[in-house]
Amino acid sequence: MQDVHADPYAGAGRASHTDPVCTRARIPDYAPEMSVEQLQTVVGIAEEGALGRAARRLRFSEPPMTRRLAALEDELGVRLFERLPRGMRPTPAGEALLGYARRILAAIDEARIAVAPAPGSAREPSAPEPDEG
Fold first, then answer.
1. Is the pLDDT of residue 39 over 70?
2. What is the pLDDT of residues 57-111, one digit of tens each?
């Protein structure tokens, strides 16, 4: 019998939302997760005006990008883009998400820059090397 009160995130390689020492934002059980790739897809399609051009720019093939967009639209319960005969245009919901997506992606870039080693400095190893022998 499955424990209905078990942590759905346990063992999933991420911090538990019920862990009292967890420093990550707590994620409710019902909240699906929006991915960075989905946000990149939204920005790419909006800026390129077409899924195919966005896929080439982001170096993805079209089917995975189509699935990413469909999954995000399903998750949010809204259409993010109007499909036109020659391209795509953000809906009002898509425009609203686009602003957030750009800010989130910019914040991720800023975080990478903030933690990157200074030019010419040695990079800290991420994990100890395994013993040979």
1. yes
2. 999 889 999 999 999 999 999 999 999 999 999 999 999 999 999 999 999 999 9
Question: Is a pLDDT exceeding 90 seen at residue 116?
Answer: no
**The residue type at 80:** L
- Report the first-to-last Cα separation within the chain, whole angstroms: 45
CB 49 within 8 A of CB 60: no
Largest CA distance in the chain: 63
Read off the tokens for 51. Answer: 């899924």
Task: Please state the three-class secondary structure of the chain as a single string.
Answer: CCCCCCCCCCCCCCCCCCCCCCCCCCCCCCCCCCCHHHHHHHHHHHHHCCHHHHHHHHCCCHHHHHHHHHHHHHHHCCCCEEEECCEEEECHHHHHHHHHHHHHHHHHHHHHHHHCCCCCCCCCCCCCCCCCC
Rounded CA-CA distance 107/114 in Å is: 10
